[in-house]
Each structure stands twice: as C-alpha cells, then as structure tokens.
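input
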Amino acid sequence: MPARLILNADDFGLTPGINRAIGELHSAGVLTSATLMANGPAFDDAVAVAHAHPTLGVGCHIVLTDGVPVSPPETIPTLLGPDGKSFRPSLIAFLRALFFDRIREEDITREALAQIQRLQHAGIRVTHLDTHKHTHLFPAITRPLLALAESNRIPALRNPFEPAWSLALHQGSRTRHLAVKLINRLRPRFEAYPQISEGRILTTEGTVAISATGQLDAETLAQLLRALPPTGTYELCCHPGYNDRDLDRVTTRLRAHRDAERQALLTEIPRVLAQPHPPSLIHYGDLGAAV
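output
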C-alpha cells in the first residue's frame, strides 16, 4: 500500500484567523483535516468554516488544560485550577495532578463527552479524537477517550507517538526531542489497548512533527516529507494560522510561527505531490477505506 498522509491542523476554533487559514489551506489542497476545540473562543466561526468545506475532515480536539470547560464546573471539580472555574493553566500542573491520582476518570469522561457532543450538536461528523498538548499520551486519558470513541461511533484516535524515522531527523529543540523520545516508551501500552489492537478504533503508524512543534518551517517540513516512508499511514500535526490581533487575545506559545507553518504547507505540499509516487492525502474518516 502506498504511503498515506493526514495533514491535520490543531487548534481549529481558537481564533478567526486560524479558522480562515484552515479553510484556505484546505481549498488549496494542502490540508485535509483539522481538530476543533469545543471550548474555543471562535467555535461558531469554525463550525461555519467546516460546513463551508465539507471535504475537510473534522475531529474533536479534547481540551483538559488551558481555558474553560464545556461542562458546568461543579460537575468536574478534579479538572479545575485554583479559581474553580477554568482548567489548570499549565501542562505541568495538569500532569502533576494526573500522576498523583488527583483527577477522577469520571470527570475526564464527562468533560470529553460534553466537548464531543457540542461538535455533534453543531452538525459536525467527528472523524477522530485527539487532545490539546497530546495529553492522551498517558493511559489515564487514553482509556476514557477510547471508550468514548466507541460509544459515540467515532472511528479513530490520533496515535500521539512520533515514529522512529521522524525522530531520527532530530528536529526541534534538544529538550523537546528528548522528551518526545522518552515519552515514546508508552507506545506499546497504547498499541495494546484492545480497541487499537483489534482495529475497533483506527489510528495511524504515528504522528510526525510533534518534536518540531514551534519550528515547522518550510525547510523542516521539506526534510520530513523527503524522509516519509514509501508505505504506511501517518499524520502530520501542524498549527497554521494568522498572527493577528485575535491571536494576541488568547493564551498560546505559537504566534509568529503559525504564519510560517501556513506558508510551509503552501510551498512544500505541492512540491511533494508533484514528485513520482507521492503519498495519498487523506483524513481520519478515510482510514478504513479500501486502497
């Protein structure tokens, strides 16, 4: 089977500029998928963009850290930060609570379901689930998300682990690359879940550009695409957008680089598609299709 590549933009719904970039990139044929934040400030605008681009695969970007929940705060107390109204403001604080068993699985399930249902009630056919800041790297998050995917007929879940061939490129900062490499030790446990091992919930052979997040310029993307194996199915995770006033109003470490990623996709994806035997571009809803 020739290589298949999902070009997925995270943070759909964060700002109108990110939404506009996703629509433009899909229309240009260089983006196939996006994951929508149910609690995003520009959620309604993102829904309109999704409906205007029916061939764009749209997943649910489950958010458990940063921002405000979709559920009533009093129903998910172990997910909340010090103010009792919003999520913990940092990934470190979230992981500390997770590792010390201070987050109840029922709270994760309740909030994730509320986010999924908000998309579904807006008329979105959810192609897959993934998580803000890749929190489902950890079994305490993976487990309830797999159960929710099955019970809500969502066919796929992001494989949050970067494949060895991509890690071998040593992209991104040394610290981030090392962290991604260490976290990859959890991959066998992810693959052993019966929903994954039995193919009840579909996934890819890995997600590339995780270690390059924040540094995915045209040169870095070109290097990834040259290294893409001739077979297998992978996701390219990216964060394109416009660095505008709306972006200044939200919490994100990715600002100017969203413009760089948008330009990289516009430049490098047409180049790889013009080469002999290019990868097939798909979205998560296509994973089960015969090839």
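quick obs: The chain has a mean pLDDT of 95.
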